[in-house]
Amino acid sequence: MGTATSNPESVLSEKMSAGCAGSIEAKEVDMQLGEVSTTAPSSADNKRVLRRIDYCIIPLMGFCYMLQFMDKLALSQATLLGLRQDIHLRGSEYSWCSAVFYFGYLAWSWPSSYLIVRFPTGKYVSLMVFLWGVILMCHGACKNFAGLMALRFFLGVGEACLAPGFALITGMFYTRQEQPIRQGAWFIGNAIANMFGGLVAYGIGNITTSSLPTWRLLFLILGATTSVYSIILFWFLPDSPQQARFLSKQDQQIAVIRTLTNKTGVLDHDKFVMAQLWDALLDPQTWGLFLYTASVNIANGGLTSFGAIVIAGFGFSDLRALLIQMPMGATQLVFLLLTSGLASFIPSSRIALMMFNTLTSLVGMVMVYAAEGKATRMAGLCLATVFATNIPLSLSLISSNVGGFTKRSVISATLFVAYCTGNIIGPQFFLASQEPRYQTGLIASVSGLALGIVFLVALLFYYIWENRRRDKLYNSRSPSTSAGEPPEEVSNKTDRQLSSFRYVL
């Protein structure tokens, strides 16, 4: 029931030595990399290339993800710096300003899934990062509710590509076994943003030499930083292993060959295959992940938009409430390192670890709702954010369990449709009349987390059932029998079309 274990180098070498060098896959490698070596890369070469990929790609993605989450938190932080009063937001208007971001995210998720496949992935992501940085800067000029609504919508459009794009790049460069800890590595940016985003906002909030309100400065500074960073991404974030500037031609070959074992299609990255779109929509795992993601993000929508206000309601001043967000980020970081590390070294543990994180958040959310003491409620709020560390595990399930580049991009987009759905629904339960306790919002968050656990259990049982069905149907308990499959079968077919494909649990 584990991941594929066959040697991709030996498969490619066998096919070539048997006169199959004219296969589709080999031709694609020839065209993009030149003559492919028939000698399997050594273990030392594999480790050297992996180390170079880690040093070059993970910091690029991690810092960008940190900027994204800091930009996303900026609206909540700006409320403590006077935004609501200055632009005269009333009643549920702030909730809608929070939710409309995810309408933009939702509107662009599916177009983005096509564009990521159709255009160079790294360049497309870099362009969108630049655009959202500019849009965030425009927040600093906002004067009313309508203007803020429009800007939040287009900010969602700009950010929609990032996590799916990074997940696809991770799937192109890393084997299935390597992916969870790498997904977690760039997602560390999320925890760092939680830890230091409040500190940055606190520092900006104490600026007294500017004629601009500090909430406007917050948007201008964060937006400018993001736009400048997009230029670095444009030059250094690769579109695929074949275009990685930091790898020599020989190392590019090794990078391609080492990921053929994934059976998820690394070389068909520039084709949008319509049949794979329908395969994605008819796959039960798509909807298991969809329902889980939508449910837990009911809680996320409330915490992201109202977390700073909830903390201020514990009895802290507005500026001090910005600093108190730091323990939430530290808690996320601990759980992220723990669960991503365990998922990489303990086979068939990803969904179980996701259940553990979600249950931890459920307990924390109940503490925030039911407890009275400031310290207990703050501890509960720190635990309540732990479920967010499931995002890299969810993305690693897609990278590892979905074959076909088009299908994987479609399911990634569908997952983020669910992410948006939950985040749109969540803030609507945080009623202005209940500020700062938000009892209805907390009950909705608890319910969403509980449903998320139910859907994870259902997904786990589906994977187990499907793996056993394949073992019985094909008379094999081996997770991979790819020695009998041409390399083009690996690249051009989905997980449901490959008899040797087994799902990671």
UniProtKB/TrEMBL annotation:
One of its GO terms (cellular component) is membrane. InterPro entries: MFS (IPR011701), MFS_dom (IPR020846), MFS_trans_sf (IPR036259). The keyword Membrane applies. Residues 57-470 form the Major facilitator superfamily (MFS) profile domain. Its main location: membrane. The keyword Iron-sulfur does not apply. One of its GO terms (molecular function) is transmembrane transporter activity. It is found in: Membrane. Residues 475-499 are annotated as: Disordered. The chain crosses the membrane at residues 99-117, 124-146, 152-174, 186-205, 217-237, 289-316, 377-398, 410-430, 442-465. Belongs to the major facilitator superfamily. Allantoate permease family. This is Major facilitator superfamily (MFS) profile domain-containing protein.
